[in-house]
Amino acid sequence: MLQLYYSEKNLQIFDETGEIDFHLNSDINVNQVKDLLNRTVTDFMSKNNSISYWLMQISERNSLVNNLYLDLSYITLIKKYLTDKGNIKVYTNNISIFSYYNKCAKINFKSRLTFLYKKTLTQLRPYKTLLVFVLNSFFFYCLFVQKNKARCLEDTVIIETYAGVANFKNDQFKDSYFGNLAELLRSTKGKKVLTWISFDKRPFLPLLFFIKRSINNYTKD
Fold it and tell me: Strands, E, within 7-149: which ranges?
């Protein structure tokens, strides 16, 4: 019998003698779990072969990137101890474990309610992310887009890079990733270069106000 409880811990497993000190890499066959991950991703792909699917993290086959690998490992581990021990108690905050064992595990009312609440929040998270993106785009357009300064980008090399507060010093922009590539293209190739900056989301608006206040244009034709 599996008893499932909500906990702030990722995963704790108890048998009649106490907490089990498990080790994922040795207690389960990780190669079989990786094969299961690949088969699952392939199955998802056959049913959802679209650009939107391939942009999702769940389409990633790398076990170090896809959180599904850890979920499958936890479920496989619980299956193993459930077979070996017979009766175990599992404390976790993992929604995938709850969804998988929802119908066969013994779950008290408080834990079931908490799991359902967390599951709902997880399902709504993409819509929250989309809403934040729309609002950020709206404020950016209203505050910083100047149509009279729009430029034609034909025959222009666009360099996309990341930037944070440390990249803007002394009224100058210093690229941490590509260095002086923009100047090199201008001086040796005679190219028009536009640096497209992806900002660190934490100081998003402060950075933009700093740029607007300090420098009219960080790029040169």
Answer: 11-15, 18-19, 88-92, 106-107
d(CA 202, CA 121): 22
Model-level pTM? 0.60
Give how far Cα 37 sits from Cα of 42, 77, 124, 160, 166, Å.
9, 15, 24, 33, 40
- pLDDT tens track for 27-77: 999 999 999 988 888 888 888 878 777 777 778 888 888 888 999 999 999
Tell me the backbone φ, ψ of residue 101, rounded to 5 degrees.
Answer: -100, 10
> Is 197 within 8 Å of 161 (Cβ atoms)?
yes
**Rounded CA gap, 161 and 187, in Å?**
20
167-181 average pLDDT score: 81
CA distance 136 to 198: 13
CA distances from 174 to 19, 138, 193 (A): 53, 27, 15
* Degrees, nearest 5: CA angle 201-124-139: 35
Spatial separation of the C-alpha atoms in residues 30 and 140, rounded to whole Å: 46
